[in-house]
Amino acid sequence: MNLVEKDLKYIWHPCSQMKDYEELAPIVIDHAKGVMLYDENGKDYIDVVSSWWCNLLGHCNPKINAEIKDQLDKLEHVIFANLTHEPAIRLCEELSKVLPAGLEKFNFSDNGSAAVECALKMAFQYQYQTGHQEKKRFMCLSEGYHGETIGALSVGSMDLYAKIYKPMLMDVLHVEAPDCYRCPYGKCRDNCDAECFEHAEKMFEQHAHETCGIIIEPLLQGSAGMRIYPPVYLKKLRALCDSYHVLLIADEIATGFGRTGKMFACDHAGISPDIICISKGLTGGYMPMAITVTTNEVYNAFYADYNEGKAFMHSHTYSGNPLGCRAALAVQKILREEQILEKAAVQAEYLHEQLCNALLDHPNVGEIRHIGLINAIELVSDKKTKTEFDSSLRMGYQIYKKALANGLILRPLGNVLYFNPPLVISKEEIDEAVRRCVASINEVL
Ligand SMILES: *Cc1c(COP(=O)(O)O)cnc(C)c1O
Q1: Mutation test residue for ligand 1: of 55, 251, 253, 413, the one with most atoms within 8 Å of CB
Q2: What mean pLDDT do residues 220-227 have?
Q3: pLDDT tens digits for 235-249?
Q4: Does the C-beta of 217 come closer than 6 Å to ligand 1?
Q5: How far apart are the CA of 343 and the centre of ligand 1, in A?
Q6: pLDDT tens-digit profile of 266-303?
Q7: Closest atom, ligand 1, to C-alpha of 290
Q8: What is the Å distance from ligand 1's center to 350 Cα?
Q9: Quick check: CB of 146 below 6 Å from ligand 1?
Q10: What is the pTM (predicted TM-score) of this model?
Protein backbone atom coordinates (compact mmCIF):
# COMPACT_ATOMS: atom_id res chain seq x y z
CA MET A 1 0.00 0.00 0.00
CA ASN A 2 1.22 3.49 -0.75
CA LEU A 3 0.94 6.34 1.76
CA VAL A 4 -2.39 7.59 0.42
CA GLU A 5 -3.97 4.14 0.64
CA LYS A 6 -2.69 3.74 4.18
CA ASP A 7 -3.93 7.22 5.07
CA LEU A 8 -7.41 6.33 3.92
CA LYS A 9 -7.23 3.04 5.79
CA TYR A 10 -6.40 4.68 9.13
CA ILE A 11 -7.06 8.40 9.26
CA TRP A 12 -10.30 10.24 9.94
CA HIS A 13 -9.42 13.74 8.76
CA PRO A 14 -10.73 16.83 10.58
CA CYS A 15 -13.73 18.75 9.33
CA SER A 16 -14.17 16.47 6.32
CA GLN A 17 -16.79 14.30 4.68
CA MET A 18 -14.48 11.32 4.24
CA LYS A 19 -16.45 10.17 1.19
CA ASP A 20 -15.15 13.26 -0.63
CA TYR A 21 -11.69 11.72 -0.38
CA GLU A 22 -12.75 9.07 -2.90
CA GLU A 23 -12.49 11.68 -5.64
CA LEU A 24 -10.00 13.98 -3.95
CA ALA A 25 -7.27 11.89 -2.37
CA PRO A 26 -5.28 13.44 0.48
CA ILE A 27 -2.10 15.14 -0.67
CA VAL A 28 0.99 13.91 1.12
CA ILE A 29 3.08 16.94 2.10
CA ASP A 30 6.72 16.08 2.43
CA HIS A 31 8.30 19.36 3.44
CA ALA A 32 7.70 23.10 3.50
CA LYS A 33 9.58 26.36 3.37
CA GLY A 34 8.24 29.88 3.85
CA VAL A 35 4.80 30.05 2.23
CA MET A 36 5.42 26.97 0.06
CA LEU A 37 4.41 23.37 0.68
CA TYR A 38 5.92 20.51 -1.32
CA ASP A 39 4.23 17.16 -1.81
CA GLU A 40 5.87 13.76 -2.09
CA ASN A 41 6.20 14.22 -5.88
CA GLY A 42 7.88 17.61 -5.52
CA LYS A 43 4.86 19.63 -6.65
CA ASP A 44 4.58 23.00 -4.91
CA TYR A 45 1.55 24.64 -3.32
CA ILE A 46 1.27 28.21 -2.04
CA ASP A 47 -0.15 28.07 1.47
CA VAL A 48 -2.38 31.15 1.43
CA VAL A 49 -4.47 29.80 4.31
CA SER A 50 -1.43 29.67 6.62
CA SER A 51 -2.15 26.00 7.36
CA TRP A 52 -5.43 26.80 9.12
CA TRP A 53 -4.54 30.40 9.93
CA CYS A 54 -1.76 29.53 12.34
CA ASN A 55 1.45 29.78 10.35
CA LEU A 56 2.50 33.37 10.91
CA LEU A 57 6.11 33.66 9.78
CA GLY A 58 6.53 30.95 7.18
CA HIS A 59 7.11 27.22 7.46
CA CYS A 60 10.45 26.00 8.82
CA ASN A 61 11.46 29.49 9.86
CA PRO A 62 15.15 29.08 10.77
CA LYS A 63 14.95 31.29 13.87
CA ILE A 64 11.94 29.50 15.34
CA ASN A 65 13.48 26.14 14.49
CA ALA A 66 16.67 27.09 16.31
CA GLU A 67 14.82 28.15 19.48
CA ILE A 68 12.85 24.91 19.65
CA LYS A 69 15.96 22.80 19.02
CA ASP A 70 17.80 24.63 21.79
CA GLN A 71 14.94 24.11 24.24
CA LEU A 72 14.55 20.45 23.29
CA ASP A 73 17.83 19.48 24.93
CA LYS A 74 17.08 21.46 28.11
CA LEU A 75 13.50 20.79 29.12
CA GLU A 76 10.75 19.39 26.93
CA HIS A 77 7.88 19.49 29.40
CA VAL A 78 7.21 19.77 33.10
CA ILE A 79 4.16 19.88 35.37
CA PHE A 80 3.09 23.52 35.55
CA ALA A 81 1.43 23.41 38.98
CA ASN A 82 3.94 24.66 41.55
CA LEU A 83 6.79 24.25 39.09
CA THR A 84 7.65 26.88 36.51
CA HIS A 85 10.33 27.68 33.93
CA GLU A 86 12.02 30.64 32.32
CA PRO A 87 10.48 30.36 28.82
CA ALA A 88 6.93 30.68 30.20
CA ILE A 89 7.85 33.58 32.47
CA ARG A 90 9.68 35.45 29.73
CA LEU A 91 6.84 34.82 27.28
CA CYS A 92 4.22 36.35 29.59
CA GLU A 93 6.48 39.33 30.18
CA GLU A 94 6.84 39.84 26.41
CA LEU A 95 3.15 39.33 25.67
CA SER A 96 2.10 41.77 28.38
CA LYS A 97 3.98 44.46 26.43
CA VAL A 98 1.97 43.91 23.26
CA LEU A 99 -1.46 42.88 24.56
CA PRO A 100 -4.22 45.47 25.01
CA ALA A 101 -3.72 47.35 28.30
CA GLY A 102 -4.71 45.68 31.54
CA LEU A 103 -4.37 42.05 30.47
CA GLU A 104 -1.81 40.75 32.91
CA LYS A 105 -2.64 37.25 34.17
CA PHE A 106 -1.91 34.31 31.88
CA ASN A 107 -3.60 30.91 32.04
CA PHE A 108 -2.09 28.40 29.59
CA SER A 109 -3.85 25.69 27.63
CA ASP A 110 -3.07 23.86 24.41
CA ASN A 111 -5.61 24.78 21.73
CA GLY A 112 -8.05 27.51 20.89
CA SER A 113 -11.19 25.71 22.02
CA ALA A 114 -9.59 24.97 25.38
CA ALA A 115 -8.71 28.66 25.79
CA VAL A 116 -12.37 29.51 25.16
CA GLU A 117 -13.60 26.93 27.67
CA CYS A 118 -11.18 28.41 30.17
CA ALA A 119 -12.50 31.93 29.50
CA LEU A 120 -16.11 30.85 29.96
CA LYS A 121 -15.44 29.11 33.28
CA MET A 122 -13.35 32.05 34.44
CA ALA A 123 -16.09 34.58 33.63
CA PHE A 124 -18.77 32.49 35.31
CA GLN A 125 -16.73 31.93 38.44
CA TYR A 126 -15.66 35.57 38.59
CA GLN A 127 -19.28 36.72 38.68
CA TYR A 128 -20.19 34.01 41.19
CA GLN A 129 -17.39 34.97 43.54
CA THR A 130 -18.08 38.70 43.36
CA GLY A 131 -21.69 38.37 44.49
CA HIS A 132 -23.41 37.97 41.12
CA GLN A 133 -24.66 34.39 41.31
CA GLU A 134 -27.60 35.36 39.12
CA LYS A 135 -25.24 36.04 36.20
CA LYS A 136 -25.09 32.53 34.77
CA ARG A 137 -25.58 32.89 31.03
CA PHE A 138 -23.46 33.89 28.07
CA MET A 139 -24.13 36.01 25.05
CA CYS A 140 -22.49 35.62 21.68
CA LEU A 141 -22.87 36.98 18.17
CA SER A 142 -24.78 35.16 15.45
CA GLU A 143 -22.49 33.45 12.94
CA GLY A 144 -19.75 33.38 15.57
CA TYR A 145 -17.22 30.58 15.87
CA HIS A 146 -15.20 29.78 18.97
CA GLY A 147 -14.11 26.17 18.55
CA GLU A 148 -15.66 22.75 18.69
CA THR A 149 -15.67 21.47 22.24
CA ILE A 150 -19.07 21.52 23.92
CA GLY A 151 -18.75 24.87 25.69
CA ALA A 152 -17.10 26.54 22.71
CA LEU A 153 -19.76 25.13 20.37
CA SER A 154 -22.47 26.46 22.69
CA VAL A 155 -21.24 30.02 22.28
CA GLY A 156 -20.83 29.58 18.54
CA SER A 157 -23.74 29.98 16.22
CA MET A 158 -22.81 28.30 13.01
CA ASP A 159 -25.30 25.54 12.29
CA LEU A 160 -22.71 23.79 10.15
CA TYR A 161 -20.79 22.85 13.28
CA ALA A 162 -23.36 23.04 16.06
CA LYS A 163 -26.78 22.02 14.79
CA ILE A 164 -26.66 18.30 15.42
CA TYR A 165 -25.32 18.80 18.96
CA LYS A 166 -27.91 21.38 20.07
CA PRO A 167 -29.49 19.05 22.66
CA MET A 168 -26.07 18.82 24.34
CA LEU A 169 -25.32 22.55 24.40
CA MET A 170 -25.75 25.40 26.91
CA ASP A 171 -28.62 27.80 26.45
CA VAL A 172 -26.85 30.90 25.13
CA LEU A 173 -28.23 34.30 24.11
CA HIS A 174 -27.49 35.12 20.47
CA VAL A 175 -27.09 38.75 19.44
CA GLU A 176 -27.60 39.43 15.74
CA ALA A 177 -24.15 40.19 14.33
CA PRO A 178 -23.23 42.94 11.88
CA ASP A 179 -23.69 41.86 8.27
CA CYS A 180 -21.84 44.54 6.36
CA TYR A 181 -22.00 43.02 2.86
CA ARG A 182 -25.77 42.79 3.06
CA CYS A 183 -26.29 45.65 5.52
CA PRO A 184 -30.02 45.92 6.36
CA TYR A 185 -29.55 49.65 7.08
CA GLY A 186 -28.10 50.33 3.63
CA LYS A 187 -24.80 51.50 5.09
CA CYS A 188 -21.26 50.41 4.32
CA ARG A 189 -18.36 49.70 6.64
CA ASP A 190 -16.69 53.09 6.22
CA ASN A 191 -19.71 55.30 6.76
CA CYS A 192 -21.75 53.60 9.45
CA ASP A 193 -22.17 54.15 13.14
CA ALA A 194 -22.91 50.47 13.79
CA GLU A 195 -26.66 51.02 13.58
CA CYS A 196 -26.99 47.25 13.96
CA PHE A 197 -25.72 47.63 17.52
CA GLU A 198 -29.34 48.16 18.52
CA HIS A 199 -29.67 44.36 18.66
CA ALA A 200 -27.00 44.18 21.34
CA GLU A 201 -28.60 47.05 23.26
CA LYS A 202 -31.95 45.33 23.26
CA MET A 203 -30.47 42.05 24.36
CA PHE A 204 -28.55 43.68 27.21
CA GLU A 205 -31.66 45.54 28.41
CA GLN A 206 -33.54 42.28 28.66
CA HIS A 207 -30.85 39.86 29.73
CA ALA A 208 -27.72 41.55 31.10
CA HIS A 209 -28.88 40.90 34.69
CA GLU A 210 -28.50 37.15 34.06
CA THR A 211 -25.41 37.37 31.83
CA CYS A 212 -21.86 36.88 33.05
CA GLY A 213 -20.06 37.54 29.77
CA ILE A 214 -20.31 38.06 26.05
CA ILE A 215 -17.82 36.40 23.71
CA ILE A 216 -17.02 37.81 20.29
CA GLU A 217 -14.52 37.56 17.45
CA PRO A 218 -13.42 41.21 17.23
CA LEU A 219 -13.76 42.79 13.75
CA LEU A 220 -13.47 39.51 11.86
CA GLN A 221 -15.88 36.59 12.06
CA GLY A 222 -13.47 34.13 10.52
CA SER A 223 -15.24 30.82 10.10
CA ALA A 224 -18.47 32.57 9.09
CA GLY A 225 -16.68 33.54 5.86
CA MET A 226 -14.24 36.24 6.97
CA ARG A 227 -17.09 38.64 7.75
CA ILE A 228 -15.57 42.02 8.58
CA TYR A 229 -17.26 44.72 10.69
CA PRO A 230 -16.08 48.15 11.81
CA PRO A 231 -14.27 49.05 15.07
CA VAL A 232 -17.08 51.37 16.21
CA TYR A 233 -19.09 48.24 17.03
CA LEU A 234 -16.39 47.15 19.49
CA LYS A 235 -16.22 50.57 21.12
CA LYS A 236 -19.96 50.50 21.72
CA LEU A 237 -19.82 46.96 23.03
CA ARG A 238 -17.07 47.81 25.50
CA ALA A 239 -19.16 50.67 26.88
CA LEU A 240 -22.30 48.53 27.05
CA CYS A 241 -20.46 45.75 28.92
CA ASP A 242 -19.15 48.30 31.42
CA SER A 243 -22.54 49.78 32.13
CA TYR A 244 -24.17 46.37 32.67
CA HIS A 245 -21.26 44.65 34.43
CA VAL A 246 -20.93 41.96 31.77
CA LEU A 247 -17.43 40.67 31.01
CA LEU A 248 -16.20 41.20 27.47
CA ILE A 249 -14.37 38.13 26.17
CA ALA A 250 -12.40 38.74 22.98
CA ASP A 251 -11.61 35.59 21.02
CA GLU A 252 -8.49 36.74 19.17
CA ILE A 253 -7.42 33.20 18.32
CA ALA A 254 -7.63 33.96 14.60
CA THR A 255 -7.08 37.72 14.67
CA GLY A 256 -4.12 38.00 17.04
CA PHE A 257 -0.52 38.79 16.15
CA GLY A 258 -0.92 41.08 13.19
CA ARG A 259 -3.50 39.25 11.11
CA THR A 260 -5.74 42.33 10.92
CA GLY A 261 -2.87 44.77 10.42
CA LYS A 262 -2.51 45.65 14.10
CA MET A 263 -1.15 43.37 16.78
CA PHE A 264 -4.69 42.59 17.98
CA ALA A 265 -8.05 43.37 16.40
CA CYS A 266 -9.12 45.14 19.61
CA ASP A 267 -6.34 47.67 18.94
CA HIS A 268 -8.29 49.03 15.96
CA ALA A 269 -10.95 50.17 18.41
CA GLY A 270 -8.54 51.10 21.18
CA ILE A 271 -10.36 48.87 23.66
CA SER A 272 -9.29 46.20 26.13
CA PRO A 273 -11.46 43.17 26.81
CA ASP A 274 -11.72 41.65 30.30
CA ILE A 275 -10.53 38.32 28.94
CA ILE A 276 -8.69 37.56 25.71
CA CYS A 277 -8.09 34.16 24.10
CA ILE A 278 -4.99 33.72 21.96
CA SER A 279 -3.64 30.71 20.07
CA LYS A 280 -3.01 29.95 16.36
CA GLY A 281 -0.31 32.53 15.47
CA LEU A 282 0.99 32.53 19.05
CA THR A 283 3.65 29.90 18.31
CA GLY A 284 3.88 30.83 14.64
CA GLY A 285 1.86 27.69 13.91
CA TYR A 286 4.49 25.37 15.36
CA MET A 287 3.19 24.02 18.64
CA PRO A 288 -0.32 23.57 20.03
CA MET A 289 -0.55 26.31 22.62
CA ALA A 290 -3.17 28.79 23.76
CA ILE A 291 -3.49 31.32 26.54
CA THR A 292 -6.46 32.91 28.25
CA VAL A 293 -5.30 36.27 29.56
CA THR A 294 -7.26 38.39 32.00
CA THR A 295 -7.10 41.44 34.24
CA ASN A 296 -5.97 41.68 37.84
CA GLU A 297 -9.55 42.49 38.74
CA VAL A 298 -10.80 39.12 37.50
CA TYR A 299 -7.78 37.31 38.92
CA ASN A 300 -8.23 38.86 42.37
CA ALA A 301 -11.73 37.40 42.66
CA PHE A 302 -10.11 33.95 42.87
CA TYR A 303 -7.34 34.91 45.31
CA ALA A 304 -8.20 33.78 48.83
CA ASP A 305 -7.33 31.29 51.57
CA TYR A 306 -7.44 27.77 50.20
CA ASN A 307 -10.40 26.74 52.36
CA GLU A 308 -12.60 29.46 50.94
CA GLY A 309 -12.71 27.29 47.81
CA LYS A 310 -12.23 30.13 45.36
CA ALA A 311 -9.33 28.74 43.35
CA PHE A 312 -9.67 28.23 39.61
CA MET A 313 -9.50 24.43 39.53
CA HIS A 314 -8.78 24.25 35.83
CA SER A 315 -5.81 22.52 34.26
CA HIS A 316 -4.37 20.99 31.14
CA THR A 317 -1.54 18.47 31.11
CA TYR A 318 0.43 20.46 28.57
CA SER A 319 -0.12 23.88 30.21
CA GLY A 320 2.86 26.12 29.61
CA ASN A 321 4.76 23.60 27.52
CA PRO A 322 8.35 24.89 27.28
CA LEU A 323 8.81 24.04 23.59
CA GLY A 324 5.68 26.02 22.75
CA CYS A 325 6.85 28.91 24.91
CA ARG A 326 10.19 29.04 23.15
CA ALA A 327 8.49 29.02 19.74
CA ALA A 328 6.21 31.83 20.91
CA LEU A 329 9.17 33.79 22.26
CA ALA A 330 10.89 33.47 18.90
CA VAL A 331 7.73 34.75 17.19
CA GLN A 332 7.61 37.82 19.43
CA LYS A 333 11.27 38.53 18.80
CA ILE A 334 10.88 38.26 15.03
CA LEU A 335 7.73 40.39 14.97
CA ARG A 336 9.56 43.11 16.89
CA GLU A 337 13.06 43.01 15.44
CA GLU A 338 12.11 42.46 11.80
CA GLN A 339 9.22 44.93 11.85
CA ILE A 340 6.96 42.29 10.38
CA LEU A 341 3.72 44.24 10.84
CA GLU A 342 5.08 47.29 9.07
CA LYS A 343 6.27 45.17 6.13
CA ALA A 344 3.06 43.15 6.02
CA ALA A 345 1.06 46.38 5.75
CA VAL A 346 2.77 47.11 2.43
CA GLN A 347 2.07 43.59 1.11
CA ALA A 348 -1.51 43.79 2.39
CA GLU A 349 -2.20 46.81 0.25
CA TYR A 350 -0.55 45.14 -2.73
CA LEU A 351 -2.47 41.88 -2.34
CA HIS A 352 -5.83 43.63 -2.12
CA GLU A 353 -5.03 45.73 -5.16
CA GLN A 354 -4.01 42.70 -7.20
CA LEU A 355 -7.11 40.73 -6.26
CA CYS A 356 -9.38 43.68 -7.05
CA ASN A 357 -7.69 44.31 -10.39
CA ALA A 358 -8.07 40.68 -11.37
CA LEU A 359 -11.46 39.79 -9.94
CA LEU A 360 -13.66 42.72 -8.98
CA ASP A 361 -15.30 42.86 -12.41
CA HIS A 362 -16.04 39.14 -12.45
CA PRO A 363 -19.83 38.63 -12.62
CA ASN A 364 -19.75 36.15 -9.73
CA VAL A 365 -17.57 38.14 -7.37
CA GLY A 366 -19.86 40.10 -5.05
CA GLU A 367 -17.27 41.70 -2.85
CA ILE A 368 -13.58 41.47 -2.01
CA ARG A 369 -13.35 42.57 1.60
CA HIS A 370 -10.09 42.83 3.45
CA ILE A 371 -8.42 43.57 6.73
CA GLY A 372 -4.68 43.24 7.08
CA LEU A 373 -3.50 40.55 4.69
CA ILE A 374 -6.83 38.77 4.96
CA ASN A 375 -8.89 39.06 1.78
CA ALA A 376 -12.24 37.35 1.27
CA ILE A 377 -13.82 36.85 -2.13
CA GLU A 378 -17.59 36.49 -1.79
CA LEU A 379 -18.94 34.39 -4.66
CA VAL A 380 -22.52 35.15 -5.70
CA SER A 381 -24.77 33.85 -8.45
CA ASP A 382 -26.05 37.38 -9.08
CA LYS A 383 -23.98 40.42 -8.30
CA LYS A 384 -26.81 42.97 -8.28
CA THR A 385 -29.10 41.08 -5.94
CA LYS A 386 -26.18 39.60 -3.98
CA THR A 387 -27.86 36.21 -4.33
CA GLU A 388 -25.86 33.34 -2.93
CA PHE A 389 -25.03 30.24 -4.90
CA ASP A 390 -27.07 27.29 -3.75
CA SER A 391 -24.87 25.55 -1.22
CA SER A 392 -25.48 22.16 -2.87
CA LEU A 393 -23.45 23.40 -5.85
CA ARG A 394 -20.43 23.57 -3.54
CA MET A 395 -19.00 26.35 -5.67
CA GLY A 396 -16.17 27.16 -3.28
CA TYR A 397 -15.22 23.50 -3.10
CA GLN A 398 -15.20 23.14 -6.91
CA ILE A 399 -12.75 26.03 -7.15
CA TYR A 400 -10.72 24.66 -4.27
CA LYS A 401 -10.18 21.39 -6.17
CA LYS A 402 -8.99 23.30 -9.25
CA ALA A 403 -6.72 25.42 -7.07
CA LEU A 404 -5.09 22.32 -5.58
CA ALA A 405 -4.36 21.11 -9.10
CA ASN A 406 -2.94 24.57 -9.84
CA GLY A 407 -0.74 24.53 -6.72
CA LEU A 408 -2.70 26.76 -4.36
CA ILE A 409 -4.24 25.92 -0.99
CA LEU A 410 -7.50 27.85 -1.21
CA ARG A 411 -9.69 25.87 1.19
CA PRO A 412 -12.94 27.87 1.14
CA LEU A 413 -15.59 28.74 3.71
CA GLY A 414 -18.76 27.83 1.82
CA ASN A 415 -19.03 30.32 -1.05
CA VAL A 416 -16.21 32.48 0.27
CA LEU A 417 -12.68 32.06 -1.04
CA TYR A 418 -10.06 33.74 1.08
CA PHE A 419 -6.41 34.57 1.43
CA ASN A 420 -4.95 34.59 4.94
CA PRO A 421 -1.28 34.03 4.14
CA PRO A 422 1.75 34.11 6.41
CA LEU A 423 2.72 37.73 7.15
CA VAL A 424 6.04 37.21 5.37
CA ILE A 425 4.59 36.53 1.92
CA SER A 426 6.54 38.37 -0.80
CA LYS A 427 5.30 40.43 -3.72
CA GLU A 428 6.35 37.71 -6.16
CA GLU A 429 4.54 35.06 -4.15
CA ILE A 430 1.43 37.26 -4.07
CA ASP A 431 1.58 37.64 -7.86
CA GLU A 432 1.83 33.90 -8.36
CA ALA A 433 -0.89 33.10 -5.80
CA VAL A 434 -3.29 35.60 -7.40
CA ARG A 435 -2.50 34.16 -10.83
CA ARG A 436 -3.23 30.60 -9.66
CA CYS A 437 -6.39 31.78 -7.87
CA VAL A 438 -7.79 33.60 -10.90
CA ALA A 439 -7.03 30.65 -13.18
CA SER A 440 -8.86 28.31 -10.79
CA ILE A 441 -11.93 30.56 -10.59
CA ASN A 442 -12.05 30.91 -14.35
CA GLU A 443 -11.95 27.15 -14.80
CA VAL A 444 -15.21 26.86 -12.84
CA LEU A 445 -17.08 30.13 -13.36
C1 LIG B 1 -9.57 28.32 15.30
C2 LIG B 1 -10.43 29.09 16.21
C3 LIG B 1 -10.84 28.58 17.45
C4 LIG B 1 -10.53 27.16 17.89
O5 LIG B 1 -9.20 26.87 18.00
P6 LIG B 1 -8.73 25.33 17.91
O7 LIG B 1 -7.27 25.38 18.23
O8 LIG B 1 -9.02 24.87 16.53
O9 LIG B 1 -9.51 24.60 18.94
C10 LIG B 1 -11.59 29.38 18.27
N11 LIG B 1 -11.92 30.62 17.91
C12 LIG B 1 -11.55 31.16 16.73
C13 LIG B 1 -11.93 32.56 16.41
C14 LIG B 1 -10.81 30.40 15.84
O15 LIG B 1 -10.49 30.92 14.64
Answers
A1: 253
A2: 98
A3: 999 999 999 999 999
A4: yes
A5: 26
A6: 999 999 999 999 999 999 999 999 999 999 999 999 99
A7: 7
A8: 28
A9: yes
A10: 0.98
The pLDDT, as a whole number, for residue 143 is: 95
For residue range 141-165, list pLDDT tens digits in order.
Answer: 999 999 999 999 999 988 889 899 9
State the distance from the centre of ligand 1 to the C-alpha of 442, rounded, in angstroms: 32
Q: Which of the four pLDDT bands, split at 50, 70 and 90, describes residue 436?
A: very high
Which of 3.90.1150.10, 3.10.20.600, 3.40.50.2300, 3.30.470.20 is the CATH number of 3-61+339-444? Answer: 3.90.1150.10
> Across all residues in the chain, what is the average pLDDT?
97
Where exactly are the structural domains of the chain?
Answer: 3-61+339-444, 66-337
CA of 253 to the centre of ligand 1 (A): 6
Pocket probe mutation, ligand 1, options 52, 278, 280, max atoms within 8 Å of Cβ: 280
Give me the CATH code for the 66-337 domain, please. Answer: 3.40.640.10
Three-state SS sequence of the chain: CCHHHHHHHHCCCCCCCHHHHHCCCCCCEEEEEECEEEECCCCEEECCCHHHHCCCCCECCHHHHHHHHHHHCCCCCCCCCCCCCHHHHHHHHHHHHHCCCCCCEEEEECCHHHHHHHHHHHHHHHHHHCCCCCCCEEEEECCCCCCCCHHHHHCCCCHHHHHHHHHHCCCCEEECCCCCCCCCCCCCHHHCCCHHHHHHHHHHHHHHHHEEEEEECCCEECCCCCEECCHHHHHHHHHHHHHHCCEEEEECCCCCCCCCCCCCCHHHHCCCCCEEEECHHHHCCCCCCEEEEECHHHHHCCCCCHHHCCCCCCCCCCCCCHHHHHHHHHHHHHHHHCCHHHHHHHHHHHHHHHHHHHHCCCCCEEEEEEECCEEEEEEEEECCCCEECCHHHCHHHHHHHHHHHCCECCCCECCEEEECCCCCCCHHHHHHHHHHHHHHHHHHC
What band does 405 get if pLDDT is binned at 50, 70 and 90? very high
pLDDT band per the 50, 70, 90 thresholds, residue 12: very high
